[in-house]
Amino acid sequence: MESRVETGIDYTIARRRMVTEQLQAHGITDRKLLHAFLTVPRHIFVDPAIGSRAYDDCSFPIGHAQTISQPYTIAFMIQSLDVRSGDRVLEIGTGSGYQTAILSLIARDVYSIERLGSLAEKAESALSRIHTGRIRIKIGDGAAGWRHYAPYDRIIVSAAMSGRPKALLDQLADDGLLIAPIATESEHLMLFSRDGYRVTQQRLKKCAFVPLRKGVSP
Ligand code: SAH
């Protein structure tokens, strides 16, 4: 993948530092995942003025009161979800498209839903500037999933839900896994696993995501 992408600045060193200091130092070991983080130019998914700070250990505003997630949060979620090369993955909350790009280098197909039309368009335009795997994005309310392409081997939700993700669990394949931030009295990342009709859930850790909102908006 072209690391300079139009800006003319090579951020390879910033990416390598992000991977060793923020990911490997905190327990991210999946080789394919680490390689994806070394490859995807995070700076093209944020305001150009942010420059190399795009690789810092934090989230950044991407407009419309939304944020690009912190690198470690994305890595932790994908590693917990155990995404494999043959997987078809559904992502709820495309946002900047950065996590979509990372997922596409690991999985077979990524289907991503964003409720804000302008963010979905920006994400598509950033993604078109780099080499990625197979990605389809639609503007919609992700809480309902994307029935047309179901079932999915893996589902990842990037905005906090207020209860059990029922419609999404219905679109999860047998042996499928779903990770989502669930906010009740407090907010936790929850991992759901389907085994036939049985769904079990595991609380992974505390977290803080923007809330999942209803409906779509331009
Ligand atoms: N992983 C993304 C995170 C984006 S923030 C990134 O790193 O860029 C969460 C995103 O979820 C926002 O873009 C928000 O608009 C979107 N979102 C919130 N509710 C949604 C819903 N019901 N359906 C689809 N997307 C939703």
Give a written overview of the molecule.
This protein has 218 residues and is α/β, with parallel strands linked by helices. It has a domain of 148 residues: Rossmann fold (3-Layer(aba) Sandwich). The protein has a seven-stranded mixed sheet with strand order 5-4-3-6-7-8-9. The chain binds S-adenosyl-L-homocysteine (SAH). S-adenosyl-L-homocysteine binds next to strand 2, helix 4 and strand 4.
Key attributes of the depicted protein:
218 residues; alpha/beta; Rossmann fold; 6 helices; binds S-adenosyl-L-homocysteine
In terms of topology, how is this protein built?
Elements: H1 12-23, H2 31-39, E1 60-63, E2 66-68, H3 71-81, E3 88-92, H4 98-104, E4 109-114, H5 117-127, E5 134-139, E6 152-157, H6 166-170, E7 172-183, E8 187-195, E9 198-206
Parallel strand pairs: 3-4, 3-6, 4-5, 6-7
Antiparallel strand pairs: 1-2, 7-8, 8-9
Helix pairs in contact: 1-2
Bound molecules: S-adenosyl-L-homocysteine.
> For this entry, what is the oligomeric state of its chains?
single chain
Identify the overall geometry: globular
Percentage of helical residues? 25-40%
Tell me the radius of gyration: 16 Å
CATH architecture of the domain at 59-206: 3-Layer(aba) Sandwich
Number of helices: 6
Order of strands, main sheet, comes to 5-4-3-6-7-8-9
The biggest sheet, with number of strands, parallel, antiparallel or mixed sense and barrel status, is: 7 strands, mixed
Under CATH, the topology of the domain at 59-206 is which? Rossmann fold
How would you spell out the order of helices and strands?
HHEEHEHEHEEHEEE
- Strand % is 25-35%
